[in-house]
Amino acid sequence: MASRPDENAKNGERVGIREFRQNIAKYVLESDAPVVLTRHGDEVGYFIPLRRPKLTEEEKKAWRENAEKVQKMLAEKGLDGDQIVEEFERERKAQRKR
Which pTM was predicted? Predict the structure, then answer.
């Protein structure tokens, strides 16, 4: 038997399956709270949206700086991203054959 989400999910917005299906983009993209799915008034499931935490400006800056460092390192070695991906894929295929 599947376990039920905690009581906070039970207090979430109640939505019929048909309405949920018709407005799924709204629930997926905009909802932060769990949604109780109903059919003829009976609870049949839960939709619990997952949100990636938004990066701060400081974190975005760090990512950009690190990306620039990687690009510089690749250029110094005479490599590009496509070559590295190809090499990775070859190595992965070789490991699968072992």
Answer: 0.45
